[in-house]
Structure formats: structure tokens, C-alpha cells
Description:
Shape: globular
Largest sheet: none
Order of helices and strands: HHHHHHHHHH
Strand content: under 5%
Radius of gyration: 21 Å
Helix content: over 70%
Number of strands: 0
Amino acid sequence: MSAQPGAAPATSAPAARPTNRRRMVRRYLPPQHGAWAMLLLPFLVGVAVVGPRWLQLPLFGAWLAGYLLSYYVFQAIKSRRPRRFRAQLWVYALIAMPLALAVVVVRPAALWYAPAYAVLLAVNAWYAWRRRERALLNDLASVVQSCLLIFVVATVAGVSPEQVVPAFVAVLLYLVGTVCYVKTMIRERGSAAYLRLSISYHLVALVAATLLDVLLAPIFLVLLIRAWLLPGRRLRPAQVGAIEIVSSVLVFITLVLIS
């Protein structure tokens, strides 16, 4: 039977659904693919060092929802149009707040870290207001926030934070180096000053990591080599991200083996 004149093709409705889903994903998930390693690595390292506890599950949910909430808060600050992000703010606030409250009720000591997070988030908010989110200091503030989660994981597990100090230092050394290295590959590609900064930092990080534990030396030597050799190559952002995923996995495996 022939289609009626003006009738929509049979495939138009199904084709529209994936498009709508993609729009929904883009609306509620930020295009910050590199942030996920920074979010996941400290949590996984903390759990690996202190051991799994049930309270770490709501902590993890609060951590992810809190990151997504903060992203849209800073977008609202940057744009000066908070109403534009009202839906995202409500969704992630309603997820993060009860999960965080559950953690605090069971383990009030988790609040010890609230002042540090407040200061670091204020730094992020200031750079968002200035529309300079890619500034080096702003990125470093985000790195410290992520690494502090290792102490929170230990506290939630009822373990002394002193036990995770080596893991905190190692992850901090890695993530700070990643910030410097990625800038030489993308936003500061071709900058001799940033390249010198990145290589110098990785040299210092190699020495510091070796003093922390000699078994960390091989992976930090690899990180130094990648910071030295790869900026001269024109890699796509996706390739840079893939390399950092591999680097994160190697750092995690190394820390698990020495913990």
C-alpha cells in the first residue's frame, strides 16, 4: 500500500528518540570527560587502601552528584543566568544532599573536611565568576578537592587518616602532573614555558615519589617520559584522554600493590 501524501517516513519517530536522548544527556552531563578520572581515582585508591565499607557507597553517590551539582553551580555563576540551570541544580541537589546527610549522620567526623572544601570551592567560584575556569590555580584547587577524598574515605571507614597519607601524596603528585601535562597537549600546546614547567614538575614528582616508595619510581618515570616526549606530537584530545586513562589505571594498580 502506498503512503499517503505528506505522511512522515516510518523511520522518523525512532530516529527522533536517540536525538532526544542525546540532548538529555548533554543537558545533564557536562562535557568534562577528563574530570571522571580525577573523580574516580582518589575514591578507588582510598577504598583499596582502607578496605571496602558499606558507608562508602552513599559517599560515592554524594561525591559524584556533588561534582555534577558544583559544575552547574559554576555554570550559573559564569553565565549570570542561574535560571538556565535550575533543573540540573534541583536534580543533583536532591540526589547529593540526602546521601551526604546519611554519611554525616553515621560518621560525623566527615565534617572535619568541610572547611577545606569550602575554601577550595570558593576558589572555583571566583574563577567561574571571572570566566577563567581553565586557569592553572583553579585546576589545582580541583585536584586538591579530589585528593582530599582519600582522607574522607578513610574517615568514613573509621580508619585513621594517617594511614592514607602516602596514597594521598602519590595521587596528588600524579594529578598535579596531569594538569600540567594536559595543558602542554591542548590549551597551552606550543608554549615553551608550560613545557618547561611540566617537565620540571615531573622530575620533582619522580624524586618525591621514589622517596615515598621506591616501587613508585617506574610509573612516575613513565609519566616523566610521556610529559617530555608527547607534547611534540599532534595528538587529538581523545588520544590524550585515552593515554591518561591508561596512566590512571597504572597508578591505581601500583598503589594497590604497595598498599
